[in-house]
Amino acid sequence: MTKINSCQSCGMPLAGADNLCGTNKDGSINKQYCNYCYQNGEFTSNLSLEEMIEICIPHVVSADKEMNKEAAKEMLEEYLPTLERWK
Known about the structure:
With 87 residues, the chain is an alpha+beta fold. It has helices at residues 49-63, 69-79, and strands at 21-23, 29-34, 38-39, 42-43. The protein has one domain (18-86). Strands 1-2 form a two-stranded antiparallel sheet. A hairpin with a 5-residue loop joins β1 and β2. The model has no long low-confidence stretch (mean pLDDT 93).
């Protein structure tokens, strides 16, 4: 199975989408985080894991029409803690 690169904060897929990647202090692309979570070498918001889960639920449901809010929350509660920002 091929590993898809995703934001290590919110889980958004980043593979092949440098325009979605965050930026380091020097303006270079940071392929570890998306531009919504990370800009100019810093996280854009000081969120808790629980707050990130709540923010991500509508995006997951929108991206997968077969997933409801409860299933999205359960999936995010399992997945997000495995990402670098939340370890």
